[in-house]
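PROTEIN DESIGN WORKSHEET
SECTION A - STRUCTURE
LENGTH: 114
TOKENS:
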């Protein structure tokens, strides 16, 4: 069934504000991809929740995906170790195969926009 492969990046002491997270991805087959922004206080197994989750569809061509999040109301503790989680071949249903075997992820960035 689905994979639950995650790429994590932790960022310490992120100031409050509005941020844009972006990344490029491609795969050897069409596949769902999700990005989650997790608070320091959330377990790594958490799949996030709107508006801190973006769901996209990766293809065999490079695509850039973006998600804007407002963490202005997060506490210092919640922003102490903000985590970006990219989940590959993520689908709540049990999809039928064949499944992608290779993913490429590049240029993950977190930029303050406000």
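SECTION B - SEQUENCE
RESIDUE ASSIGNMENT:
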């Amino acid at each position: 069934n689905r994979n639950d492969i995650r790429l994590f990046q932790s960022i310490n002491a992120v100031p409050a504000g509005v941020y844009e997270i972006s990344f490029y991805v491609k795969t050897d087959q069409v596949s769902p991809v999700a990005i989650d922004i997790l608070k320091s206080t959330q377990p790594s197994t958490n799949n996030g929740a709107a508006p801190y989750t973006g769901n996209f569809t990766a293809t065999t061509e490079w695509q850039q995906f973006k998600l804007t999040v407002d963490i202005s109301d997060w506490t210092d503790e919640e922003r102490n170790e903000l985590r970006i989680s990219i989940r590959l071949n993520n689908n709540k249903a049990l999809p039928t195969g064949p499944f992608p075997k290779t993913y490429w992820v590049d240029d993950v960035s977190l930029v303050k926009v406000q």
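SECTION C - NOTES
The CA atoms of residues 4 and 34 lie 10 Å apart.
DSSP finds one helix and seven strands in the chain.
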